[in-house]
Design brief:
single chain; mainly beta; 2 domains; 8-stranded antiparallel β-sheet; 5-stranded antiparallel β-sheet; globular; disordered N terminus; disordered C terminus; Secreted protein
């Protein structure tokens, strides 16, 4: 054996023989129908574990609540657990839950960030949110707590529009993570030594100010990617007064995006589009209101330079109406939307999310609705009409009165579900026939003193389809 290994030609021959054997197995299993899974007939697998991360709350004189909710299984499955704790190696639990269909919530949030881990029935369809409202005056931010990942995209205003744009990188694992941050400003890519090779230690958070790189830009796309490990990023856009909020992550580069949740009223409404590739892109914009498609010359086309971003005002097309925005391009792009009211004293952000549609992705979950706030749902149907059910669920699992909403084809519908008063969650579910894009508009206060936060609602599936297996070496090794 030693002679064979020392002879590199013999070793190469052994590798070739081994690869041939593997490909032979792949061919035979494919030929005889063994080990092949067709995507159309793939069996869905139930979600058995989930991990969500909420960053440390921002600002003083404010009330923060973290809440988690996983709906009861339609099949009656039970078991599992949910544990919330601070992001530390030996942290004591902040709270626990042992039954799906119940709401867990806690005031304050953890200074080092809150980590929620769930298994079994409590992981299926789990959503975790962090909401902050004003203690002495109107203020509102809402954040869908994220799952640690290898790649996350944001679209936000530039430094010229903000006092500060801060990126929080949280590592909840026991090993370090290494992160690169790519910025696509209106005049092209921006980076520095501080955005390359960022080390995030285990159970730690790194705060990175992006302002020095984007001070003169109107819009920016932010791509957080890891070289090793994974992080849960969160982007906080800060202005004076109540004009500060979290910027939600947006869908990765694609040729078509839908942004729900543009609220009604006065103020600036700016679409942010970035082309992260090496080629320029031209985006067409469709604005869907309660009356149908808005027609305006500003929507004819938006040119985006390569590896850069651009902004488009939607105040003219939308006027004071709520809306859903569809953006399409011949090249992959990234999109987001910034909303200002009262000269920047009240700001909010929304982003592209996948639709709710018949099947495993029919349901979204809203676990937090603090006392004293109001909820409005904005539901957009760019294609076929859709039927939506909105169900409140109290902390003990009791379901309240269901609100039925019909969304006409090519329209944006508004729904104001009646709050049951006590702590509760919302389940938003569609039965089709068409997909619907949804967002929640959360309001604290009223009139000119109100503060607004927008949260786009992606699906919260209880099951996920298994990936198909094909005739390849990857299939055999997997």
């Amino acid at each position: 054996m030693r002679l064979i290994v020392e002879n590199r030609f013999a070793l190469f021959g052994l590798v070739v023989v081994a690869l041939a054997a593997l490909f032979g197995v792949a061919f035979l299993t494919g030929a005889f129908g063994l080990g092949r899974t067709d995507a159309a007939t793939a069996e869905p697998a139930r979600v058995e574990s989930a991990l969500r991360v909420c960053p440390a709350p921002q600002g003083e004189d404010r009330l923060t609540r973290v809440a988690a909710f996983a709906p009861e299984s339609d099949e009656g499955e039970s078991g599992g657990s949910l544990v919330a704790e601070e992001n530390a190696a030996d942290a004591e639990p902040l709270g626990e839950l042992s039954e799906a269909g119940r709401l867990w919530s806690e005031e304050g949030g953890a200074g080092g960030g809150t980590v929620v881990r769930a298994t079994g029935a409590l992981a299926a369809g789990l959503e975790v949110a962090q909401v902050t409202v004003g203690e002495d005056g109107s203020y509102a931010t809402e954040l869908r707590c994220t799952q640690p990942s290898l790649s996350t995209w944001f679209a936000a205003p530039g430094g010229a529009e903000l006092d500060e744009l801060t990126l929080n990188l949280t590592n909840v694992d026991d090993t370090p993570a290494t992160v690169n941050v790519d910025l696509y400003a209106t005049d092209g890519p921006a980076y520095s030594d501080e955005t390359r090779g960022i080390t995030v230690d285990p159970h730690d958070t790194v705060e990175l100010s992006l302002n020095p790189l984007i001070e003169s830009t109107e819009a920016v796309a932010v791509h957080v990617r890891t070289n090793s490990g994974r992080v849960a990023p969160a982007l906080f856009a800060e202005r004076s007064g109540s004009g500060s909020d979290w910027v939600p992550p947006t869908s990765p580069p694609a040729k078509r995006h839908v942004i729900p949740g543009v609220p009604s009223g006065n103020g600036a409404k700016r679409l942010i589009v970035a082309a992260p590739g090496n080629d320029p892109a031209t985006a067409s914009v469709r604005v869907i209101t309660p009356e149908g498609d808005a027609e305006h010359e500003a929507l004819d086309g938006l040119d985006i330079p390569p590896a850069a971003s651009a902004a488009l005002s939607l105040e003219g097309p939308l006027d004071k109406e709520p809306g859903t925005v569809v953006v399409e391009s011949e090249r992959p792009i990234v999109v987001g939307l910034a909303l200002d009211r009262a000269g920047g004293d009240d700001t909010a952000y929304t982003a592209a999310v996948p639709p709710l549609e018949k099947g495993v992705n029919s349901r979204a979950v809203l676990p937090a609705n603090p006392e004293g706030t109001a909820t409005e749902l904005l539901l957009g149907a760019p294609g076929d009409a859709a039927s939506v059910r909105v169900t409140p669920v109290l902390a003990d699992g009791t379901a309240g009165e269901v609100l039925e909403v019909e969304v006409e084809a090519g329209r944006t519908a508004r729904a104001e579900p009646e709050s049951p008063g006590a702590a509760h969650a919302w389940i938003v579910e569609t039965s089709g026939p068409g997909p619907v894009h949804a967002a929640r508009v959360l309001t604290d206060g009223s009139g000119d003193d109100r503060a607004t936060a927008v949260r786009p609602l992606p699906p919260a599936p209880a099951v996920v389809p298994l990936p198909p297996v094909s005739d390849s070496l990857t299939s055999v090794v997997r």
